[in-house]
Design goal:
By secondary structure, the protein is of the alpha/beta class. Among the domains are: 189 residues, P-loop containing nucleotide triphosphate hydrolases (Rossmann fold, 3-Layer(aba) Sandwich); 149 residues, no CATH class; 34 residues, no CATH class. It is built from 20 helices and 15 strands.
Length: 552
């Protein structure tokens, strides 16, 4: 149950704190005062999309805190699973800055939005004046019926989902084995072609790198020969070569070895002589290796093109191509030996389909049985809401088997006795849809996981005796769960257990909305204002307001 709501810098609200009570909480205020801002605040703190347009003008940070007590065991279990401390009070806090960054806390712990919604979806249910759109959407009718049935329906749905997943896995395995004979033979031909193409290439790991290096070397052969020959000429192939000069210098120093410093120089010259001779040997080997077949470059180029083509088809490298080939061979082998496996899988598929069909049949029977009960309950609720003579029915059709069974469900309705029943969207007025929505909410009370329901002008388009019936229905719902209701209808407002007034004023060049609890004469005056339709109320309206409050 929501006990308090703190709002800072949200839309027209600068700062306010609102307290709520158990039972029927009524939100009052003139049109445009900002009553819907409270709903926006609740939606925001419960995980709705963070909308920067809600941030008050010229402010940098918006904040909403919501405090809940007497929460359900389902919520407590989620908190325990998340490791969040709970001592009897649940505090939700959410901020939004001007950069669009939102921070969410649960009892002081920062949580991500997905985790947050696991908690909040079990706290509060919103039922606005536009939620009847969901009711008239035929895509929602099956889930509404299943929710009405409850655990028995969900048990079948879980089993059906499991069988659908099992069937999908079987079909995947069958596909992996090539499917039917024609498809399997086609796949075998493709695999054999791929294997032959790779095997015929005789690829070797590391080959591409070696070929590229050789190609680069041969392409530069003329330049290499010229440079190496010049280097050899300077080092060893003329009378004034480096090796000859070093040899002569070393020879001259041989007679001076008794002098240590000169002996060291002679030793170093010897080392230099042999080092240069080694370099000369390497260069001569390089020169000899440039003696290549003129067609070698063409052959290397063709080989690299072949590798490039195979890479485009089968992988980014020779190693991945070889891996692809190995997998293709295994796949082909599996296909060659797949007949027995396919026979086994097809039998398994047949049994799975049979079991799935059986579960869908049982679920459909359960749905049709409970649909009759739902029809009676809806008509009973509508009768209480001044809609006598109306008819409501759940139509069934069969569709392709899926995770929701094979039932296609549609709600049809007629507002008057003897009138043809049609889709809700085609026959129900706005006021009738509001009452239908309220009827469903009343019926589903024991199916709801939440402890609070918010009605945003659910009485829109309703007046007179009908409004009185709606008021009684809302009051009855409030006997079971906390109700928060925005209303402009005096008789609905008069049934409240607690009252919150939203006001708006302009001061110092800015407009500020505020919300606060009221009681006593303030409540009387506000209901009288609803009766008269303006802020200045007559004595007659005050008398009427008092009477409505006394009749509660």
């Amino acid at each position: 149950m929501l006990s308090s709501l703190f709002i800072s810098n949200l839309a027209l609200i600068k700062k306010c704190e609102v307290n709520f009570k158990k039972g029927f909480n009524v939100i009052l205020g003139q049109s445009g005062a900002g009553k819907s801002i409270l709903i926006d605040a609740l939606s925001f703190v419960l995980g709705a999309k963070a909308d920067k347009t809600l941030l008050r003008s010229n402010e940098n940070l918006m904040r909403v805190d919501a405090v809940f007590d007497d929460i359900s065991q389902n919520v407590i279990n989620v908190l325990n699973d998340l490791g969040i401390d709970f001592d009897g009070e649940l505090v939700l806090s959410r901020t939004l800055n001007s950069d669009g960054k939102s921070v969410i806390r649960v009892n002081g712990c920062v949580v991500v939005l997905k985790t947050f919604k696991e908690i909040t979806e079990k706290l509060m249910d919103f039922c606005g004046q536009h939620d009847n759109v969901g009711l008239i959407n035929v895509n929602n009718h099956l889930s509404i019926l299943d929710k009405f049935i409850g655990n028995d329906a969900y048990s079948y749905l879980n089993q059906i989902e499991g069988k659908c997943d099992e069937l999908a896995e079987i079909n995947k395995e069958i596909k992996n084995l090539g499917g039917d004979d024609a498809e399997r033979n086609r796949l075998k031909e493709i695999l054999q072609f791929q294997i032959d193409e790779i095997d015929n290439a005789n690829l070797v790991s590391g080959e591409e790198e070696e070929l590229n290096e050789r190609f680069k070397f041969i392409s530069s052969a003329e330049n290499i020969v010229e440079k190496v020959e010049y280097a050899l000429q300077k080092l060893d192939q003329n009378t004034e070569s480096v090796t000859n000069n070093i040899y002569d210098a070393k020879k001259e120093l041989n007679s001076l070895l008794e002098f240590q410093e000169l002996a060291n120089c002679q030793e170093r010259l010897t080392s230099a002589y042999y080092e240069i001779k080694d370099i000369v040997d390497v260069l001569e080997n390089v020169l000899r290796s440039t003696d290549f077949d003129p067609t070698e470059l063409e052959r290397i180029d063709a080989r690299l093109d072949l590798i490039k083509n195979l890479k485009r088809k089968y992988g980014k490298s020779i190693d991945t191509i070889l891996e692809f080939c190995a997998n293709a061979k295994k796949r082909l082998d599996d296909l060659e030996n797949s007949e027995f496996a396919l026979e086994k899988l097809n039998k398994k598929k047949e049994n799975c389909l049979k079991e799935l069909e059986g579960l869908c049949e049982k679920l459909s029977a359960l749905r049709k049985k409970n649909a009759i009960i739902l029809e009676d309950k809806v008509k009973e609720e509508l009768n209480d809401l001044q809609m006598k003579g109306t008819n409501f029915k759940v139509d069934f059709d069969r569709c392709e088997i899926g995770k929701k069974g094979f039932d296609a469900v549609k709600f049809v309705f007629s507002a008057n006795e003897g009138q043809e029943m049609k889709d809700l969207s085609k026959t129900a007025s706005g006021g009738e849809l509001s009452r239908l929505l309220l009827a469903f909410k009343s019926i589903m009370l024991d199916k709801e996981n939440t402890s609070t329901v918010v009605f945003d002008e659910i009485d829109s388009g309703i007046s007179g005796q009908t409004a009185g019936k709606v008021a009684l229905k809302l009051n009855k719902i409030a006997d079971y769960i906390q109700v928060i209701c925005i209303t402009h209808t005096p008789v609905v407002a008069s049934k409240g257990d607690a009252f919150i007034l939203v006001t708006k004023e302009s001061k110092n060049g800015e407009t500020i909305s505020n919300a606060a609890s009221i009681d006593g004469d303030e409540v009387i005056n506000q209901i009288a204002s609803l009766i008269d339709g303006n802020e200045k109320v007559s004595q007659t309206a005050i008398t009427h307001a008092k009477k409505l409050l006394e009749e509660k």
